[in-house]
């Protein structure tokens, strides 16, 4: 797939969302946010307070909902008319949405699968848009980027971030979830890979208190740790997206 085609997908998402607007309230009197499913291809479920609901076009979403996309299916979401997310098949994610459309805090928790994010307008200085993966967090103010989380087959995860437009700031998290200070700014047409492995001193799953490091992929398909985060930044191969 070419970069132009991917960006075209982003544009079509924005255009479709612009004509299918639904406003819901997230608690505070002024905290109106636009959160909805506006396109379904296949199947998906929304888990809400231990209740599972089949997703459908036009469905209003609520804070802390968890979305699961079925096999050979995709789901498109619209947030505030300037944030769009395309969820690939077998993707599981939840989100936290606070504030107003003008001054918003949005955190996407990507459990597994792949999402294409597009923030079409520069966010205000009081706004935050983050994608959290196992022991890493990615923050932007206006950009298009892809995030993929895959099981590495060893109890851990491989996370890949690909910046299509703009810049994405990525910071690793410690086993307790605090920021480590190990971060990198990923420019347009660049990508970064992160390996998260189980903590040897714990019996918990890697997503609970695992250890994340920046890595580069070797020719044999394995990964090598890079002590300097900037060395983890490589060119995107758009044919592999």
Largest sheet: 18 strands, mixed
| Count of β-strands | 20
- Residue stretches low in confidence (pLDDT < 50, at least 5 long) are 11-31
| End-to-end Cα distance | 6 Å
**Shape label:** globular
Secondary-structure-based class equals mainly beta
Task: Please provide a written account of the structure.
The protein has 241 residues and is mainly beta. The chain is built from two helices and 20 strands. It has helices spanning 3-18, 206-209; strands at residues 24-25, 32-33, 35-41, 44-48, 51-54, 66-69, 74-79, 83-87, 92-99, 104-119, 128-133, 136-140, 144-151, 157-165, 168-173, 179-186, 190-197, 211-217, 223-225, 234-235. The strands form two sheets. It has an 18-stranded mixed sheet that branches. Strands 1-2 form a two-stranded antiparallel ribbon. A hairpin with a 5-residue loop joins strand 15 (168-173) and strand 16. The radius of gyration is 17 Å and the shape is globular. 37% of the residues are buried. Residues 11-31 have low confidence and may be disordered.
Summarize the structure.
The protein has 241 residues and is mainly β. It has helices spanning 3-18, 206-209, and strands at residues 24-25, 32-33, 35-41, 44-48, 51-54, 66-69, 74-79, 83-87, 92-99, 104-119, 128-133, 136-140, 144-151, 157-165, 168-173, 179-186, 190-197, 211-217, 223-225, 234-235.
Characteristic terms for this protein:
241 residues; mainly beta; two-stranded antiparallel sheet; 2 helices; 8% helix
């Amino acid at each position: 797939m070419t970069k132009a085609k991917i960006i075209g997908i982003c544009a079509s998402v924005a255009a479709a969302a612009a004509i299918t607007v639904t406003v819901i309230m997230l608690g505070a009197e002024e905290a109106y946010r636009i959160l909805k499913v506006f396109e379904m291809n296949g199947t998906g479920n929304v888990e809400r307070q231990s209740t599972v609901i089949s997703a459908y076009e036009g469905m209003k979403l609520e804070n802390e909902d968890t979305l699961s996309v079925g096999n050979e299916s995709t789901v498109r979401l619209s947030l505030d008319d300037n944030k769009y997310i395309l969820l690939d098949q077998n993707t599981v994610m939840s989100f936290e949405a606070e504030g107003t459309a003008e001054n918003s805090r949005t955190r996407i928790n990507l459990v597994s699968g792949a999402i294409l994010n597009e923030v079409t307008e520069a966010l205000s200085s009081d706004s935050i848009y983050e994608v959290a993966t196992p022991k890493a967090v990615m923050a932007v103010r206006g950009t298009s980027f892809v995030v993929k989380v895959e099981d590495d087959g060893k109890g851990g995860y491989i996370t890949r971030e690909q910046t299509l437009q703009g810049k994405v700031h990525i910071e690793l998290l410690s086993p307790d979830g605090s920021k480590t200070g190990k971060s990198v700014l990923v420019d347009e047409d660049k990508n970064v890979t992160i390996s998260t492995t189980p903590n040897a001193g714990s019996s918990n799953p890697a997503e609970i208190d695992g250890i994340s490091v920046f890595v580069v992929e070797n020719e044999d398909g394995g990964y090598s740790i890079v002590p300097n985060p900037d060395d983890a930044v490589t060119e995107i191969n758009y044919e592999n997206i």
